Structures are given as C-alpha cells and as structure tokens.
Amino acid sequence: MGAADPRGRPVAGADLLAQRLARILLTRDPGAVSIDGWTRGIGGDLLTRSPHVREPNFTRIHGDDLAFLFAAYDDRFLNGLCGGILGPDRLTFRLSGRMTRAGGKTTRFERSGGARRFEIAVATSILFDGFGGDDPEVTVCGRACANRLEALQRIFEHELVHLAEWLGWDESHCGRSRFQGIAQRLFLHRAHRHQLITRSERAARVGVGVGSRVTFGFRGRRLTGRVNRITKRATVLVEDARGERWSDGRRYARYYVPLGELRLAEPEPARGRGRA
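Structure (tokenized):
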C-alpha cells in the first residue's frame, strides 16, 4: 500500500487509496457540531502533547507540531488516506519567518528521477504578529479566531485541502469551486483567504507606510530616512554621501529596521527659493 512508480504516480494499492480519498473529499459532510468538536479536540491534544505549543497564544512552535496536526487531521477527517498514499518520506513541514502575506503554502516538488514530494509551510511571522491586545477581530478562511492556535488550525486545514486535492486529482486551486466546497464541508471555511494582521497593516495603523519619513536609533545615533519597503522589517533609506546612488540623483544607505523601532519624523520643511 502507498507504492508509487519512479515518477511518483500511484500504482496498485496507492491508486485505490487515491480514489477513496477523492470520494471522501467530494462526499464527506460531518456537520458543524462534529467539526467543531473534532477540531477543538485536535487543538487540545496539541497543547497537551507538544513541548512547544503550551497555550492558545503560544510563543514557540516547532515543525514537529505541524507533523502532529497532519497526522491528527488526516486520521480524523480523511481516514488516514493522505499518509497512506504518501508514505513516510514524501511530506515535510516548514515554519517560515519570511512569508509575510500568505498564512501558509503547500508546494509540490519533483525529485531527481521525477518522483514527487510535498511540503507544507506555515508563516510564523503572521501568527506571532497577531493577537495583540489592540488587534481587531482576526479571521482565517472566513472563521473568527480567538487566539494563535485557532488561526494555526485554520491555516493548516486550508493547506491540508491543497495537499489532498493534489493527491486525489494531481492539481489544486483554492479559487475553484471544488476546493471551496471541500473546505466548507470538512472545515466550515467560508473564504479561502486569511485576514490576519500583516506587518504592513500593523505599520499602517501607526501611520508608517512606504514613503513615510521615519526616525530610528542606530549605534547610539538617531537617524532619519524614508521607508522604501516593508516585509519582515522595514527598509529605510537614509541620505549618505558614501551610499548607493538612486534615481533621484541622491546617495542613500539602506537600513533594515524592526517595525516596532520606527517613529514618524516631523515633516520636512518646504524648500523655498532663496532670495538674491
């Protein structure tokens, strides 16, 4: 069971498992009461068993926690069929601090020789940036989330649907009706996008955006520059005669500054014409 040819295409028992998985994805409808109970149970089990995720607004997480979620969700919702098709070495998990817009991502890779493997990545930056005391209501996949654990589960559910679609039909598109029907029936998802607080949104709430004039501390000095980009940190351009020349003809040095260290600067005085 779970065997595949060198190009990763299912044969014999694996082909039967893929057919059974596709049938479950298209027909299973546990109902809201069961879904809420099952997902709360999985979240509670993670809190009990993980040495890292110890509270709903956890501050640490490990790749093993994603592996736990996969095994628990696959067993409860999909009869263990994803794991049966993939076997022990064709699915890996990754925590990403560099993903700043998407909450998660499922990627299919072609190994040398053509065999396929998959990776599920979850954006820790978005999770850890959210759920501050002054944050608005956070929704993921159209469902309100009271804490990081609930947001993590909604993100993982979305990625699990991607993986299951790949295994059942060799393609997956969250903008299409099949994906959205599966996500709605299995997990009560009402949308296929998250509304977690991104770093750009958090910066905008305090008036910082691309083009903003800001100040920040650097090695005991207070520097002033303009925000050129916002990702995990803000890229700030500060005028510097030794820096790189930009299209406006001036030279700038780049600084990569955590968003929490930025302060809005006073507006530059207008540059009027001097008198003769």
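The helical segments are 13-27, 32-49, 63-78, 81-86, 124-129, 148-169, 177-187, 199-205. Residues 266 and 272 are 18 Å apart (CA to CA).
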